Amino acid sequence: RLVDAISQPMMIEGRELEMQASVGIAIVDSFDHSAASLIRDADVAMYVAKDSGRAGYVVFDDSMSARASERLGLIADLRKAVERGQISLNYQSIISLESGRVNGLEALLRWDHPTRGWVSPARFIELAEETGQIQTLGAWVFNTALDEMTRLDASLGGDHEIHIAINVSMRQLEQANFAEFVAQALERTGFAAERVMIEITETALMRDPETMLRQLQLLKRLGVTIAIDDFGTGYSSLSYLAHLPIDIVKIDRSFVEGIGQSQRDTRIANMIMRIGDSLELDTVAEGVESYDQLAALQHIGCAMAQGFLFG
Ligand code: C2E
Ligand code: CA
Ligand code: CA
Q: Hey, which of 140, 167, 250 would you mutate to test ligand 1's pocket, going by the most ligand atoms within 8 Å of its Cβ?
């Protein structure tokens, strides 16, 4: 009844708005439940409901428990990870296929957990997004990347134009003052905006087109470069893409995998390249692991590449 009641459209300032709710239900079936554990179970069930992607409710059952305690453990640990120095950045080089030189570096988060060992960002970015910790973490990434680049510049003597690619989550872009934050970080470090590339996944760009367009325009005004990440995995329409102030398309690793071997994959990669060309965007191929892939990418005219082959 609550889910139904909440989903009723409301008129606010002449606009019809709809809300959705996800509900987790936990039932006390014995007296060894504390209030805190009951709420925790309900919380777990709520996340299962959310994961199903639609408004609705889920009743907690014990099979959700293991997943829940792992989740809660990671969330608690993540909260302290930055201050305990367990988080760092790795840099993967982005190579210009024309000159063969390093064109840029992509900053990738690493979490060295004291008992779990290396925890993949694929696992904890999602948690950080759900719990709002992505704001702190994302700000740390941005500031640290610029600081480390400034140090790199000092040691290389400034005679290069290597850019830094930073992954930004949709949750960060949802903050109205994100561009302001970027401007401050640039000002603090004196790092040239032209050498900063912000990577946003295609899926994130699709989620809330209006907000994204507004944010990208603000960022472009600062002079930073925008790349669309994991391209080919979302379902963005070409007309939408053409309207976005994007500079670079990153071809998702799944399309690079079979390139040079499977004709089909080669054709798909080629097609993505042509889309990039017609929108006047540069293309970066991700996840290049072999010389065969490299040769095929050079053959279809891809501008840049990154992956274990170079790393
Ligand atoms: P991504 O942005 O697509 O990053 C590329 C991923 O592919 C990285 O995984 C990288 O280590 C991996 N990779 C690079 N070259 C190769 C290759 O040749 N072969 C294979 N098999 N893999 C390769 P990683 O570091 O585990 O990151 C996973 C994802 O987590 C990233 O995907 C990105 O979406 C996210 N992520 C990483 N750092 C950040 C961050 O600072 N902020 C945000 N919001 N997301 C981040
Ligand atoms: Ca990326
Ligand atoms: Ca990617």
A: 167
